[in-house]
């Protein structure tokens, strides 16, 4: 087979995936960018070119800035906690202990539940006066509290739900990485008298760096794309305190039907995600050790 035929064969194998990628990722992104420079079409009035007017309106929109700030706090609350909890659970279930299979199943179960179902479960937990959390605080003599209706606790409650949902998913990757580490390394460290903490800090954690980078990228993307539980639990309230950027895009596009402004908001979200992903690979890739 000639070299030209090999290249043709390779491109033909990639063609189905490439077509799907272009049709459902690149083309929608390019179309969204194009529509962000036009006004929203109305009955009897087609869209007209408005240039950067949608982006100028965005910078004067207080709800956009609040949603962006909420999303930053949401990311800071979910990413470190979910990754740290996932690593802790993976280390625990990687050991030889009774009921290890049951623990793995219990930790992973929230991952396979739809986010809508998870939101409804936690909505019951947070129900004032009757919810499980209210029953526990009542036993401690604490007053009743509207957890999702208070500006002070609503976003924190949503963050807890996300951590509970995502930690089990990230645990699977850490567990697979831990099982890929040669047992001889731990045996050699034990012979040298190294403690478990020292071995974890000096050997295990560096070997987990590729997995951590992968999990971190996914956690950052998830922190900006999760919106299902917001719709079910708070709908962005109270007073937009739980309105995340994607939820605001959903409201602008499908509640207010301002498709052009929603397109501009979407491009800002894509730019943020692209910058964060590139930054993670540029600054963290050099510190990652591959076996």
What does this structure look like?
- This protein has one domain (61-287): MetI-like (MetI-like fold, Orthogonal Bundle), CATH 1.10.3720.
- It is 72% helix and 0% strand.
- It has helices at residues 3-35, 53-59, 62-93, 100-112, 115-125, 132-139, 154-179, 183-191, 196-207, 209-225, 228-233, 245-254, 259-284.
- The relative contact order is 0.13.
- The model has no long low-confidence stretch (mean pLDDT 88).
Write the layout of secondary structure elements.
Layout: H1 3-35, H2 53-59, H3 62-93, H4 100-112, H5 115-125, H6 132-139, H7 154-179, H8 183-191, H9 196-207, H10 209-225, H11 228-233, H12 245-254, H13 259-284
Helix pairs in contact: 1-13, 2-13, 3-7, 3-10, 4-7, 7-10, 10-13, 12-13
The largest sheet is: none
Q: What radius of gyration results from the CA coordinates? A: 24 Å
Q: Between the first and last Cα atoms, what is the distance in angstroms? A: 35 Å
CATH fold category name: MetI-like fold
| Overall outline | flat
Q: How many DSSP helices?
A: 13
Short description:
The protein has helices at 3-35, 53-59, 62-93, 100-112, 115-125, 132-139, 154-179, 183-191, 196-207, 209-225, 228-233, 245-254, 259-284. With 291 residues, it is mainly alpha-helical.
Features of this protein?
MetI-like fold; 0% strand; 291 residues; 13 helices; mainly alpha; 72% helix
């Amino acid at each position: 087979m000639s070299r030209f035929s090999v290249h043709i064969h390779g491109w033909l194998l990639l063609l189905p995936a490439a077509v799907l990628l272009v049709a459902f990722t690149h083309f929608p992104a390019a179309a969204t960018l194009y529509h962000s420079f036009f006004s929203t079409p109305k009955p009897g009035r087609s869209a007209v070119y408005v240039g950067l007017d949608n982006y100028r309106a965005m910078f004067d929109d207080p709800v956009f800035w609040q949603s962006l700030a909420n999303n930053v706090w949401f990311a800071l609350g979910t990413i470190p906690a979910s990754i740290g909890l996932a690593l802790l659970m993976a280390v625990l279930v990687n050991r030889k202990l009774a009921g290890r299979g049951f623990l793995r199943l219990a930790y992973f179960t929230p991952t396979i539940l739809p986010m809508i179902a998870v939101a409804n479960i936690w909505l019951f937990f947070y129900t004032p006066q009757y919810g499980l959390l209210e029953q526990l605080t009542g036993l401690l003599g604490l007053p009743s509290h509207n957890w999702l209706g208070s500006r002070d606790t609503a976003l924190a409650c949503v963050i807890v739900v996300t951590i509970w949902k995502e930690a089990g998913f990230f645990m699977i990757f850490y567990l697979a990485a831990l099982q890929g580490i040669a047992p001889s390394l731990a045996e050699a460290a034990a012979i040298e008298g190294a403690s478990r903490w020292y071995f974890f800090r000096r050997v295990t954690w560096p070997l987990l760096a590729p997995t951590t980078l992968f999990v971190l990228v996914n956690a950052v993307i998830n922190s900006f794309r999760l919106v299902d539980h917001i719709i079910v639990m708070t709908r962005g309230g109270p007073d937009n305190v739980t309105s995340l950027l994607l939820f605001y895009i959903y409201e602008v596009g499908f509640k207010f039907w301002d498709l052009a402004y929603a397109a501009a908001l979407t491009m800002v979200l894509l730019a943020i995600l692209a910058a964060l992903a590139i930054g993670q690979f540029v600054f963290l890739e050099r510190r990652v050790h591959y076996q």
